[in-house]
């Protein structure tokens, strides 16, 4: 009598984070385009949809009451407030995906990445960095005609986020979107080193 095939062990969760304006969404969109088999978690948010955004594809758009319910029922792997809105990762789809032995990718802010590390020590944290500080300043300044005080606050937050790169396992420089996407997918599919983590030193 043939024995049942062994179950695949859960895959490793990979988290992509980095400062605002570094191009996280652009790199993830390129990953989706070039590697459609890669599963990317869809976050829940209390902010209103932007033109062209589709509920369940770009975000799960929920009201404050629903977000409060998710928090109360431990339905979020992580959550954070950013620019007056809350964002969080529904935990059930992520667990279901990892249980199949297939990798999962989260694109979240720094606060969320820290929460994931606290809950899952084996998660792989990837920091997306700009080619230079001046490039990041240029990208943030090009986002619209914001008052100088708002721009200064954004830059201060971005500098603090850049300073946190040492908390991550790997740093990927977004100097070319296609190359960064390829590197990220390579990290997603690399075998897990178990409980061995880098010391935080990066080239």
From TrEMBL:
Catalyzed chemical reaction(s): GMP + ATP = GDP + ADP
GO cellular component, one term: cytosol
Keyword field contains Cell division: no
CDD domains named among the record's database cross-references: GMPK (cd00071)
UniProt keyword list: ATP-binding, Cytoplasm, Kinase, Nucleotide-binding, Transferase
GO molecular function: ATP binding; GMP kinase activity
Major localisation: cytoplasm
InterPro entries per UniProt: GK/Ca_channel_bsu, Guanylate_kin-like_dom, Guanylate_kinase, Guanylate_kinase_CS, P-loop_NTPase
Region (Disordered): 1-22
SMART domains linked to this entry: GuKc
EC assignment: 2.7.4.8
Annotated family: Belongs to the guanylate kinase family.
NCBIfam families membership: guanyl_kin
HAMAP family: Guanylate_kinase
Functional note: Essential for recycling GMP and indirectly, cGMP.
Protein name: Guanylate kinase
UniProt gene name: gmk
